[in-house]
Amino acid sequence: MLCLRPTATTIRSISAMKRLTHAIAAAVVTFGQAPTAAMDQVYDVTIIDDDPNAIPDSMNNVPQVGFSTSHSYSVWIWNGPYLGVRGWGCYVNDLGHAVWYNYYEGTLFWDGSQNTSVPLWGRCINNHDVIGGSTFDGVAAIWHPVGGLHFIGTLGGERSEARAISDHGVVVGTSETAGGADHPFIWDNVAGIQDLNDHLPPDSDWTLIEAADINASGDIVGKGVHEGTTHAFLLRDDEIISLHPDPGLGSSAGLAINDSGTVLIDTDREYYLYLDNVMYRFDHLLKPGVEFDSLSLRYLNDHNEIVGTGELADGDGQRQAFLLTPICLGDLDGDGDTDQGDLGILLGYYDYGDGGDLDGDGDTDQADLGILLADYGCGT
Ligand SMILES: [Ca+2]
Ligand SMILES: [Ca+2]
Ligand SMILES: [Ca+2]
Ligand SMILES: [Ca+2]
After folding, report:
1. For residues 273 and 263, is the Cβ–Cβ distance under 8 A?
2. How close is the Cα of 356 to the center of ligand 2, in Å?
3. 109 CA distance to ligand 3 middle (Å)
4. What's the pTM value of the predicted model, to 2 decimals?
5. What is the chain's pLDDT, residue by residue, as a tens digit (380 residues)?
6. Which of 327, 272, 317, 328 is nearest to 297 (CA)?
7. Residue 160's closest CA among 118, 194, 126?
């Protein structure tokens, strides 16, 4: 005998289908009005070290982080090898090679299998293993395992130091001038050392003080005096751009620039990201629910990943080191965007499991669909 009686499963599916139809209808209205923001990604937070004294000195694109601590003087690469004790300052490139300082052996170049002695204080290393810094006499120089030591010199004063080196071998740093002031310099093999102030347009009303970073396009960031205040600057194609985020802030400084042109900016109160020509206050980019009591951002890589230290608001008051990663809130399949693939997954689990759960309450329902559709197009 054939008995056609609706089972509990069928009833659940039918009512789920009705609710899904309503939800999609509501969501389509929302989606049609959804604003498009230039920065549609938000930052997720991963704790990468619990030692309150861990100092992230650098980060590469892997990502790996060069760490040292002011407490035990250990030096290591997060997501890489432990380098040694009694040292500090660890700068790592995309090959996982690093320059660091050891109290007993001096500056060392880690080539992935062994350490070689380096005749300068290391401050940076590019992806061709060229190390920049200053000699033990305090004059900027570069060193390469084959090419050896090459002096950069000064802008007329006694001291100088290389701070960043691009993969083209262009170095930026800071030097004392003949008059005793600190000015940023740019150096390459052909032009030699030049005052970055000599690269400014003649009517610029800027005095540059410090260069912190240079990217593959030759864009330079740092800080300078402009309109009576210390402003973060971006020097691009000999055009000077103020990256002072807000006139109400006392001072600002450009800390890092990556190959996409994203700039990390420190101010006397907050950190900012200058991304696709838009300025964002960094704490406004944090994923919903993530809050810091204090946060100090140190470095930015080409994927806009950032390493920093601080205290989470819901933590135990301990300082920790964090990797901050841009994500899309609706990215269910983990391919870095929120699109049709993710919507398909969510609809497949709608009212039927946690496979499309975006708000973390254990189900897949209208709230999750709303999050996905509001985020639709992120990362695409
Ligand atoms: Ca996706
Ligand atoms: Ca996709
Ligand atoms: Ca949910
Ligand atoms: Ca729910």
Report:
1. yes
2. 15
3. 49
4. 0.88
5. 444 444 444 445 666 666 666 666 666 555 544 444 445 789 999 999 999 999 999 999 999 999 998 777 799 999 999 999 888 999 999 999 999 999 999 999 999 999 999 999 999 999 999 999 999 999 999 999 999 999 999 999 999 999 999 999 999 999 999 999 999 999 999 999 999 999 999 889 999 999 999 999 999 999 999 999 999 999 999 899 999 999 889 999 999 999 999 999 999 889 999 998 999 999 999 998 899 999 999 999 999 999 999 999 988 889 999 999 999 999 999 999 999 999 999 999 999 999 999 999 999 999 999 999 999 999 98
6. 272
7. 194
Walk me through the domains of the chain, giving residue ranges and CATH numbers.
Answer: 46-327 (2.130.10.150), 328-380 (1.10.1330.10)
Residue 248 φ then ψ, to 5°: -75, -10
Residue 286 alpha carbon to ligand 3 centre in Å: 20
Residues β-bridged to residue 263: 257, 274
Residue recorded with tokens 């620039």: 257
Query: Cα 307 to chain center, whole Å?
Result: 6
Q: Residue 239 Cα, ligand 2 centroid: separation in angstroms?
A: 38
Q: Which ligand is closest in space to the CA of residue 361?
A: 3
